[in-house]
Amino acid sequence: MAKVYFRYAAMNAGKSTQLLQVRHNYHERHQRTLLLKPHVDNREGEDVIAPRIGHIVVKVDALVYATTQLRELVERDIQAKGKLDCVLVDEAQFLSPEQVMQLCQVADFLDVPVMCYGLRADFRAQLFPGSGALMALADDIEELKTICWCGRKATINARILDGRVLREGPQVLIGGNEAYTALCRKHWQLDQPIPPELENRG
Ligand SMILES: [Zn+2]
């Protein structure tokens, strides 16, 4: 029986690197994968996956829009290209709960394993809709760990503007000047995106 896997983290935990490694392993065994990524905005390069480490850039097989029916998309792919061995989804936090259920149907009724990689919580420490649904439905859930500057596990993908932690605003920001950094819950609450000794410099 095929399973649905969810690998989640705060940012910078190497999710895309691991996804591409899994994809590579399938291809090495001459097996076929379908690489998907939700459409979020019209940022340049959104149809590729480019890990922070290394210089690999991989084009996705299909972008997932709000109206995309994932079970149908996978069925069409199998009809056109034959047996499919794995569906891989990057940025799975942006899937709708309905699309997560469709991916469960891909595993349950088409017998194709589905591996989703994504963020657990947004900068407000709220679950992303896709991640909440995956937490509820995935067969196999694993956290990819990353650390805050203090050394504790980072759980929040903090949105930073002018050295301060932002806690309100839209979940998805398009074209802002904000940056993101992985923080532990404590330093997210204390509004300390960098160590105090560095903050006082200059
Ligand atoms: Zn910390």
Folded structure, characterized:
By secondary structure, the protein is an alpha/beta fold. The chain has a single domain, classed as Rossmann fold, CATH 3.40.50.300. Helices cover 28% and strands 23% of the residues. The chain has six helices and eleven strands. The strands form three sheets. The chain has a six-stranded parallel β-sheet with strand order 5-2-6-7-1-8, with helices on both faces. β3 and β4 form a beta hairpin. α2 crosses α3 and α3 runs parallel beside α4. The protein is elongated. The model has no long low-confidence stretch (mean pLDDT 90). The site of zinc ion (ZN) has 7 residues, from α5.
Strand order of the largest sheet: 5-2-6-7-1-8
* Tally of helical segments: 6
Q: Write down the secondary-structure element order.
A: EHEEEEHEHEHEEEEHH
> Which residues sit in consecutive blocks of at least 5 with pLDDT less than 50?
none
Report the principal-axis shape: elongated
Largest sheet: 6 strands, parallel
CATH topology: Rossmann fold
- Helix-strand makeup class: alpha/beta
Could you say how many structural domains there are in total? 1
CATH architect. name:
3-Layer(aba) Sandwich
Distance between the termini: 59 Å
Helicity range? 25-40%
Bound molecules: zinc ion
CATH superfamily: P-loop containing nucleotide triphosphate hydrolases
